[in-house]
Specification:
globular, alpha/beta, 15% strand, 3-stranded parallel beta sheet, 5-stranded parallel beta sheet, TIM Barrel
Length: 266
């Protein structure tokens, strides 16, 4: 049985082994959360600032449990609807979690939780100037991704589909275009991943990693599902490195007959 491939990747100057980033919300219990995160092999764990109510000192026990996991924390601004709100919450995160890393989310529509492209770019520009290492969550829009890169984001996180839908990669063409046009920085598919096969597809497209939460936390067996995603990310990465055969419009025999001997019975 082959072991996981020994490749690494770099995010804002730090080296990591796992290409799976995992969330810390929605699990049936803190114990299950800890077990699932451990089984996933993830090096980076996202945590919602708003859910922890940092301005009230809330979530202290939860935070202590996360620290015991010895993972890199990626606080996020989930639930923010304006640039001012996101920047304020980010500044709180830097004090509470003692990190400049930040997953930036600015909601533009409450129905599908689509990020606001204009506010996200504005907030990202302000946060980069304040010294934050911004991981912006955005839609699969090439121009938005280019603008986020231009304001200083060194990692981009376009969605596969809306958060929590589990629909996978709704528009592989858009994601592939982003990868081809922005080849020089890490790209992470964030949101909408529902099955391990979706993770394989994203890595096969050349994406560097996957960020997910719901697909593991709300699975029938979160710990087993975490293991499945761990292997799926590894499989997708292996496939990307190996190089898939080109798609064809016509059939091509896998066993050619030209030049081969032909036997028959008389």
């Amino acid at each position: 049985m082959s072991s996981p491939i020994k490749d690494t990747w770099i995010l804002y100057g730090e080296t990591f082994h796992s290409r799976l980033l995992i969330g810390s919300a929605l699990y049936p219990s803190p114990a299950v959360m800890s077990d699932a995160i451990h089984e996933s092999g993830a090096d980076i764990v996202t945590v919602s600032l708003r859910r922890q109510s940092p301005e009230q000192g809330g979530g202290d026990n939860f935070w202590r449990q996360l620290k015991k996991l010895n993972k890199t924390m990626l606080p996020n601004t989930a639930g923010c609807h304006s640039v001012k709100e996101a920047v304020t919450l980010a500044q709180m995160s830097r004090e509470l979690f003692e990190t400049d890393w930040l997953k930036l989310e600015v909601v533009g529509d409450d129905y599908n939780l689509q990020p606001d492209p204009i506010a996200t770019i504005d907030a990202a520009a302000q946060l980069v100037k304040l010294g934050f290492k911004v991981f912006p969550y955005c839609t699969d829009d090439l121009v938005v991704c280019q603008r986020l890169r231009d304001v200083g984001c060194q990692v981009l996180m376009p969605w596969g589909s809306p958060i929590g839908t589990g629909r996978g990669l709704m528009n592989p063409y858009n994601l592939q275009t982003i990868r081809e046009r922005i080849p020089d920085i890490p790209l992470i598919v964030d949101a909408g991943i529902g099955k391990p096969s979706h993770a394989v597809q994203a890595l096969e497209l050349g994406y560097d990693g996957i960020l997910l939460n719901t697909a593991i936390a709300q699975a029938g067996n979160p710990v087993m599902m975490a293991s499945a995603f761990r292997h799926a990310v590894d499989a997708g990465r292996r496939a990307a490195l190996a190089g898939a055969v080109a798609e064809r419009q016509t059939a091509s025999p896998s066993t050619p007959t030209l030049g081969m001997p032909f036997w028959h019975q008389s």
